[in-house]
Design goal:
Blueprint: H1 15-22, H2 26-38, E1 42-45, E2 49-52, E3 57-59, H3 66-72, E4 77-88, H4 91-97, E5 101-111, E6 114-123, H5 138-144, E7 151-160, H6 163-169, E8 176-187, E9 193-204, E10 208-210
Protein name: GntR family transcriptional regulator
GO molecular function, one term: DNA-binding transcription factor activity
Keywords: DNA-binding, Transcription, Transcription regulation
Length: about 220
Amino acid sequence: MIRTELSVGDQLPGERRLVEQFGVSRITVRHAIAQLVSEGLLVRKHGRGTFVAHGMAQSRLHLASFHEDMRAAGLSPSTRVDVVAEQDAPPEAVAHLGSDRALRVRRLRLGDGVPVSVDDCWVHPGLLPLEADWETSLYGMLSAAGAGITRAEQTVQAEAASPEDAALLGIEPGAPVLAFHRRSFSANPDGSERPIDYSVSVYRADRYQLHMEVLA
């Protein structure tokens, strides 16, 4: 029913109607709804009801661009550029890049037109021009420039959305978000590596989830 009759944002019919339509018990309906909520297909809104959720993108903690993650989730990726400028870098970026200045690229990333993340990236100066097409994949541009990302160190932590990020993401300030702090590297021909960028990507917790396989 969700796939064939309802669209994203539509409200789910009441329990009585679902019981009559599918010929099952009220308990079965409640269990089914709870399962779909846990899978991110439905979302409950207090005092309003249950609605069809937007698709939730998933990260497997591997090296993939935002565009790849969105397409893997069946969503159409798009980007709105907020800042592109050479600026004084923050301490974390300076420590990684070894430069006091860096190319700052701050972008709002969307899936099917819905805000998913704010990416604040500091790229080693001289790698990419200011007039590059910043609505496309950063990893793709770096690869074309001979600085493809081959390794990254990443930390993920739960944070409260800042007022600035919340305004871009369409959520309340202080709402829970997932913050990805990443240091990326590119391999040199001699086997050494060089730092490429430092980024902080803030994801809406209701639009993004982590998935990993744990082996014994």
